[in-house]
Structure formats: C-alpha cells, structure tokens
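Q: Trace token order:
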Amino acid sequence: MPENTTHPASMLVVDDKANVRTLLESAFVDRGYHVDTAPSGEDAVGMLGERHYDVVLSDLNMPGMSGLEVLKAAKSVSPETEVILITAYGTIDTAVEAMRLGAHDFITKPFKIAEIERKVDRIARQQRPEKSTPAQTWIHPQVKHFVAASDHSRRLLKMIARIAPSKSSVLITGPSGVGKELVARAIHEASPRRDEPFVALNCAALAPGVLESELFGHEKGAFTGADSQRIGRFERAIGGTLFLDEVGEIDNAIQTKLLRVLQENEIERVGGAKPIPVDVRIVAATNRDLKQAIEEGRFREDFYYRLNVFALQVEPLSARPDDIPALVDHFLRKFSLELGKEVLDADDDVIYLFMRYGWPGNVRELENVIERAVVLAEGNSITREELPAEILNAPAAEPTAGPTPAAIASSLQERTDRMEAELIQGALERFRWNKTKAAEHLGLKRTTLQYKIKKFGLE
C-alpha cells in the first residue's frame, strides 16, 4: 500500500464470522491500513454513518442485512467509497446486480488473501496518489508477512531491509523448498521497484534454446515457428525485478549473454540486431554449489561474481526450528481463509511432532502438510489424526537439528504469551484503554484482563 504522509487509508471489514474479521483485520493492519470491523450489516451501516472509509470489504450473505444492502448504504453516504463483496455463493446474476449498484469488485470463496490485498492496494493507490512516497530504506508492509521467529530468519530479514533499496544483484542459496522465491519477493517489495513488475523464471524447466527466447524475446522469423515478435522476461521486467530461479542450471552460452546484460544493461532479441536498454534488477537463486560448478567448468566465474554482489543463505527448516510454530500459525490462517474453515490452532503434541521431524522438503513440505490437515480437520484444531504417516512414524531429528522437549514447551509458552500480549495491547489501543470495551472485544472478564495487563507489564 502507498505510504501515507498524514492518515492511513481506512477500511471497514464486514463479516459475520469472527475468524474472517480477525484474519483480514490483521492482514491489512500489517499493511498500514486503519481497519474497523463489523459483525453484521446493521452494525456496518451504523459505522458508515459515523466516519469515512476508503474501502469496504463485505461478505455478501450474512444473517439480517446483506452485503448488497451494505453496498447501497456505503454508496449513499460516500459515493467515492469503493466496495468489494465476498461470497461463497457467487452467481452471474448477483455479480451483475452488485456491479450495477456500484461495487468495485466481486470475489468468490475460497479466495486467496493475496488477491484481496492486491485489489485493495490498487484502490488505495488510485484514491490517494498524492500521499504516495517512494521507498528508500523502509521495509514494505508486505515483508511483515515474512515469518522470522528464529535468529537466522531475523538476521535474514534485516539483511533484506539493508540491501533492498540498491540496484545490485543478489544471489540466494539454500536447499529446495526453503523459500528462496519468498526472499526474492521480499527484496522486491521492500525496494523502490515495488510498484513495478516482479517477473520469475525457473531456468531449470526450459531447454537452452527455449530459455534464450524466454529471457530475451525474439523477432518474427528468427527461427522456424517464430511467426510473430515475442517480448522476453527482461522486457517484461523493465523497471522491476527479474528472479532467475535455479540459475545454476543455465548453460555457458546463455551465461555469457546474461553477463553482458549485467554489464551493459541492454539486451538483443533472438534474431534482432538492435540493442534494447533494460533497467532490471537481477535476483538469482540456486540449490547448487556454484563454486564447485566453477571448478568443474560448468559455471562462469565472472558471471558468478556479477550475480553475487550480495549473497543470502537460507538455512533448511531443520536448522531453524524456532520458525516452525510461527509458520504453522501463518499457514493455518492462510488455508482457513482460502478453504472457508476455522482451523486456527494445532494441538501441543502436533507441534511437538513438527519440532522433532527433520522436514526434508523444508517449508514447502510444512505448507503442504498444513493444507492437508486443514482440509481433513473436523474441529477448530489440528490433531494427530490429520497428520501423514511419515511425520507420525518418523524418527526424531538429530539433537543438533532441534530443541529438547523442555525447550519446545518453553518455546510454545513464550509464543502463546507473546501472541496474547500483542492481542491485548492491540485491543487496549483500539479502545483507547477502555478496559471494559477491550475485555468485551477479547471475550474476557474485566478482572481477567486487569490480571493479564499486570502479568505482561502493559501498564
């Protein structure tokens, strides 16, 4: 979202499901928005009469007043307010009616939170262009979604913040599944290029001839089958970032051409003779040992040093177990939203199994396990019943790869206390330290809230 030099963009989230309100509120507060929530259409209409909102994000089908009625009320009070409707029961007729009444967009469940974020950010940029300021050294709100609970991940996030504003190339190394593309996207989102394209290409998936055309494009008639001109990834990424995944698989001839691009900042399409200037930042990733590849003659040393201006190493998940509980929370929220379920917790023995497991597939494997568990879950918490056999029957990881059971228990308690303190602090600030309203919002007795305020030292 564009930075605002005075007041943040404001939005109202309307949904009768508390977990959806909480998750959307958390996502957009992290992105720098002022967010209010309403559990019903009636409450939303009352709030619309009290203050202006740039965006209203409303469920369509709710008990009592529907999202269409919220839309009508929002447009009658403030025609410039944009309304996005969300429903699990989308039909063409309903969409047409919503658009006729002035809805900005219409999203059907299950949805991806990133899709809603993009739509709302676009509205905010259009409504408040004069409030936008270019990024310098600040971390873009999107990067806050980068889970960084372990010391390793915190150091990585700090390094991203330091290198993001530059134009220099970055080489990200680490085994498959650790999140190298996520790191690349975080660098892009934290940079002045964040509003320009982020273009990704898996270099290992393409034969050399196809890869060359994908990178540089080609002219009509450049080779058999080239019936028209093609714009390559470099031109599509102009002004932004080009992410070259599995860069260690590129053959030497194309390495030579890429080296020239890095030196001259220009390309030539296949079959073309005219240089085309390209302002593109290169972020590359590999799970290979490129120094060994250099010794074996499979990777150019000069190309390696051009890519390796900044080097970021992403450790396997087994080497940073403190990230596991936070990642579990993140993926539970993600898949609960996408699948329309309310599975927002994991039993303690599940977390214990996760902490003991070696995760050969790293974060990607953990994400898949959580998605599977959320699909299978019958309650609000993941249990052993939803875990695959390889995790239930796996031997414990090596002692150096994970903490002891006592350390796990301590880590879980610290995580719980930290999350609870943040929730209480947020509620108190939202209600201007009105403890009665904050307690009601949190579902606590006022005396319990007072105890927890003292326990966490929030006074």
